[in-house]
């Protein structure tokens, strides 16, 4: 079983790399946004509860999120492994994940953290906002999201450093270059027999998934374009856009207006995915 966590700030190409890794390894890439959408669409007890929080403009608490993740990781398609994108976001969630994995009788293999130059990330996200006519994605808003990410994630990164599980990857450069860095780490963990690199024949490489054109400076990478056009199926991996709606989540101490915006984003994304 392969169990991977992928950390990285908004705009660093995390969604693209998650898809490439999932395709290559034949495991589902699971985001918190995907879990929310599925539970709300299926009207599960947890989905209904999550929707009630979002309808009130409140963040969905860990008491709802953690059981959702637990149930998702017990699904048949995750029996041989999974990649978690966007979870855990806090040390408390990391503890809950530890307990979930113990219940499943498995352990994490590696936590990969994509590290990118903040100014380049901001530049890329501003260009994407222009392309998508997202007037609310201004530079102050984007920098605030990045600050929230770092505030939340640095303790999580430290938590996994202490467990000797964290591997930092330079996310500056082309999709192929970043993929090669990631797979060099994965291959070193799995041994030479695991198959190498993002262009291995037994799985999809960066070129196959993204067209091989995107760099950190691109406004939108080809994987994002494909998702927006309803294309982009890849080796049965779950597809999702680069921006997870949960990326906008704020810490519990954030203002109610910020929380409402984050929750509304997740709610709107779920509504779109359900065709409403």
UniProtKB/TrEMBL annotation:
Gene3D superfamilies per UniProt: P-loop containing nucleotide triphosphate hydrolases (3.40.50.300)
Keywords, in A-Z order: ATP-binding, Cytoplasm, Kinase, Nucleotide biosynthesis, Nucleotide-binding, Transferase
Pfam families hit by this protein: ADK
Binding residues for AMP: 32, 37, 58-60, 86-89, 93, 134, 145
A GO molecular-function annotation: kinase activity
Listed pathway(s): Purine metabolism; AMP biosynthesis via salvage pathway; AMP from ADP: step 1/1
Biased composition (Basic and acidic residues): 217-230
Binding annotation for ATP: 11-16, 128, 173
Residues making up the signal peptide according to the UniProt record: none
Comp. bias regions, Low complexity: 197-207, 248-276
Domain text: Consists of three domains, a large central CORE domain and two small peripheral domains, NMPbind and LID, which undergo movements during catalysis. The LID domain closes over the site of phosphoryl transfer upon ATP binding. Assembling and dissambling the active center during each catalytic cycle provides an effective means to prevent ATP hydrolysis.
Identification of the protein by name: Adenylate kinase
Organism of this sequence: Schaalia radingae
Organism ancestry: Bacteria, Bacillati, Actinomycetota, Actinomycetes, Actinomycetales
Gene from which this protein is expressed: adk
